[in-house]
User: Fold these one by one.
Assistant:
Number 1:
Amino acid sequence: SDDRYRMVELACEGEDKLFPNPIELDRTGQSYTVDTLEELRRTLPPTTELYYIIGADTFYQLRNWKKYDRVLELASFITVPRAGYNIEEMRANFMLMCNYEQMHIQLVDTVVSDISSTNIRRRVAQGLPVQDMISSQVWDYIQKKNLYTHAAPSFEKVQADIQMRLKPRRYAHTLGVVKAAEKLAEQYGCSLAEARWAGLLHDCAKEEEKKGPEELHA
């Protein structure tokens, strides 16, 4: 978290209207958007307008956020289309959704560069260039701190490892959960990759429960 905050500081250098705020890092326990908005509303002048910038993919998941109704009361939304989204179709869907939810939302009419932190981390791990995606100061920091250089194991590699750890019946159940998670992700517009990982790992330690501390440590 400290490294990520420092990179945000570096990215904001020279931008007089952008600055980082550490309130989510200073907060203990799990942090939710509604908590951040409530704190900002308490500390900023009453007339301050709060705008929350999100990608179009995130907008369709808002109903799953904690205290969703309160979030809509605390902030207006600016939604940015991503590559592959039809802006006209989005505008029609947003109008229906906004009228139903009584939301305050602005839709940016331009598809911005498809840059994501996930893609940047992946490219760094693979040794691919990212200098056109981030500032030179952030790139220097990543190199100095040796961040993201260790690529995560592939899904297939972890799946093979879990197969060795679990009994055949539980492993078959795990594969079934992976397929169910994929279908739910498609149905609700969630990340397919994250859903597959969640299904694969949900029972990964079940066979360890009967072992004692010494065995687990070994």
Number 2:
Amino acid sequence: KSAAPTGPVPPGGTITYTISGANVGGSPARGYSVTVDGMPRNGILIEDTIPTGLTVTQVSGSAGAGTVRFIYYDGTAWTTLPSTTGLSLVGDGTRKVGMLIEGTGPFFPQGASYTFSFQARVPASALVGTGYANFAIVRFDANGDGDADDPGEIVTTNTTTNTVAAAYN
């Protein structure tokens, strides 16, 4: 997990968060059932809670196997994003943005990698020193039992922190 810039960000500025990883296990990874748009879908889920007050404006990503779907959690359910740009998803501590790498069976081979990025705008009215801590979670099925509840199947990234810098006129 990384954030750019790595340090302070000005009021009204943008933070780009990037989650990158790879299957470094001893066998292909499997997806698990995730309900999106009211329908079960099978895949590897990369999810990131939008920091309170930030506005996600764009998402992007890729995966070395499977099909990529960009999704949004409104606090109740996951839905497919209608677009990857021109978004206005405001974080409130419960809303998430994500990438579902869809596939069936052991579809994500050893060495396959993924990258998920999103841009989040800092409010122009943000107070100097306000901190935005952020981490992501990756969920998959490693043992083929159909869930992502077993040890090692939920991976939490490192936490990045940006603070609002002073703005001068």
